[in-house]
Amino acid sequence: MGKLIDGDDGLPAEEVGVWAKEKHDYLCRYIDISRSARAKYLGPGPGKAGATYIDLFCGPGRCKVRDTGEWIDGGVVAAWKKSQEGGAPFTQVLVGDLDTQRREAAATRLRQLGAPVVEIGGAAVNAVQQVIPRLNAYGLHFASEVSPVFSAKYKRWLTKAPLYISFIYQQNILICAFFGGLLIALFIR
Questions:
Q1: Which helix (H) or strand (E) holds 71?
Q2: pLDDT tens per residue, range 39-62
Q3: Cβ of 81: how many Cβ atoms within 10 Å?
Q4: How far apart are CA 81 and CA 115, in angstroms?
Q5: Backbone phi and psi for residue 139, each to the nearest 5 degrees, phi listed first
Q6: Are strands 51-55 and 92-96 parallel, antiparallel or unpaired?
Q7: How many helices (H) and strands (E) does the chain have?
Q8: Contact of 122 with 149, CB cutoff 8 Å
Q9: Angle, alpha carbons 120-89-29 (nearest 5°)
Q10: Smallest Cα–Cα separation from 165: which of 136, 142, 187, 148?
Q11: Edge-to-edge strands of the sheet including 117-120?
Q12: What pTM, to 2 d.p., does this model score?
């Protein structure tokens, strides 16, 4: 975790390295390229089970790049904005962070943007137990960086619905899709 500072909007923000910009660019690219698939789960009617964005390490939702002084959106805020821009906004955004101040700041920023946000308290490994029942088993769900969280304990649930999990680290991205018990992985360097 980076150091908390006063944000340019009056809420807490986090100091980050320049790498955060690239990480958020990759995240937004993925949110953008997946909009057509996500759109199929949105709206009224049968088969429209919704699309959820999950970030259990959400941070405060706003960052200042340490080396340049530039203000950028945090990952969860950037993802929500990109989903709106693409015309396929998430039907719910579940945010969690062990640090209550960070989680509340992210949730406040998302609410100000009109996001249907739900806060999940506590450590990610425990918070996931609150997340699973909130998800429609037939919806499309994108979980950002939750590799240690979705363990074999939830394998049975994962066979019911498509769940997209992206693991992003520096210049590498691993996108995993669980669908019908099948794991599809794409590695981009």
A1: strand 71-73
A2: 988 988 887 888 889 898 899 999
A3: 17
A4: 9
A5: -85, 175
A6: parallel
A7: 6, 11
A8: no
A9: 95
A10: 142
A11: 117-120, 92-96, 51-55, 140-144, 163-169, 172-179, 182-188
A12: 0.79
